[in-house]
Amino acid sequence: MPLRSNGHVQDLSGTTVLLHGDLDLQIIEASSLPNLDAKCLPMFSWKSKDSTNASGLIDTSDPYVSVCLAGASIARTAVIPNDENPTWNEHLCVPVAHAVEKIEFIVKDNDKVGADLIGVVAIPSSVIVEGNQINGWFPIRGPSGAPLDTGAQLHLSIQYKPATENPLYKNGVGSEADQKGVPHTYFPLRRGGSLTLYQDAHAPDETLPEILLDNDKVFKHNKCWEDICHAILEAQHLIYITGWSVYHLVRIIREPTRPVPSAGWLELGELLKYKSQEGVRVILLIWDDKTSNDDLFLKTEGVMQTHDEETRKFFKHSNVHCILCPRSASSKLSIFKQQVVGNIFTHHQKCVIVDTQAAGNERKITAFIGGLDLCDGRYDTPDHRLFSDLDTVFENDIHNPTF
């Protein structure tokens, strides 16, 4: 499906193409966007079509652009307030692995409540996959597929680089000594690390099938929560925990397979206090459920019963730093959407980071990551016992909240 010399798309081929690599996008500017705010003004008799805002500017569209692949938003520009000819000049490099017919650049007008669709520029993936740079002005089309009456256009530059042609990925990320790993990430590639895989919070011996590895080795099934407890007990400098839910009354060690120091039998909250009194820096970052409250006149446990307020209160006036962090939406979103995100969506990062013994007198960082909610209802084994051991291993551990 060819492009005209001015960059305008003639039609869409409808061919689904796998885009697996990097998209280099430049969303430069737009021209002649319609004033969607003007459509609302006749509702208010005291406003004219050229109504001005508090800054003395004429109220008009507040445009931004979202980049979508098969309905998934992969990038977004800033909002340019009150501008029918906005300039973004935003350069975005986005890794993709999507089977799609087209890339859509959706132009919207940001409002206090939601956002209004201005129009769409759709570029067929069959053109993009060729890898040539596509640069030009593209007509913005309305829901009917026809160009907007104002002649609105979007200035874009697009280039696709497949993963197979990227030397960084040729032999695996970081396979060469001079490679720095995945580009455009926050942290550089570190070498010499190791990875341990777990199944469930605890896997008693001989409950999982034997897994053969190369060189006739057998995979060793480790015990996640037991390893976490011992790592916390042995930490000398730091214990950092993030979680959707962290409950101070949860017991980590329940079915030990190796000797446990007396402190290992403490509930999580008491264990962390114990370590903080040894001089270890202990910090918890827990999702703040806005439906839970522990105020003087309002006390609610919250819809999801994550115990965030209980845990915060437990560590108050101790050496453990416990911070509740709400889910705050991007300021790019409308006020209404910010409230939706803050009340419906959560923080879901889960990790336990500690310092552990390395070679000699050196220390290293060990991080337990994944579905590690150290709270009630999360201790489980491969047997997934529902009714047995309810008065011992799973005592006070029934937890099945619903939204």
Automatic annotation (TrEMBL):
Catalytic activity annotation: a 1,2-diacyl-sn-glycero-3-phosphocholine + H2O = a 1,2-diacyl-sn-glycero-3-phosphate + choline + H(+)
Residue ranges annotated for the PLD phosphodiesterase domain, each copy included: 343-378
The keyword Hydrolase appears for this protein: yes
GO molecular function: phospholipase D activity
Domain of life: Eukaryota
Any GO BP: phospholipid catabolic process
Database matches in InterPro entries: C2_dom (IPR000008), C2_domain_sf (IPR035892), PLipase_D/transphosphatidylase (IPR001736), PLipase_D_fam (IPR015679)
PROSITE patterns in alphabetical order: C2 (PS50004), PLD (PS50035)
Alphabetically ordered keywords of this record: Hydrolase, Lipid degradation, Lipid metabolism, Repeat
EC category: hydrolase
This protein's record includes keyword Lipid metabolism: yes
EC number: 3.1.4.4
Pfam families: C2
Gene3D superfamilies documented for this protein: C2 domain, Endonuclease Chain A
GO annotation, cellular component aspect: plasma membrane
Stated family: Belongs to the phospholipase D family. C2-PLD subfamily.
PANTHER family: PHOSPHOLIPASE D (PTHR18896)
Protein's name in the database: phospholipase D
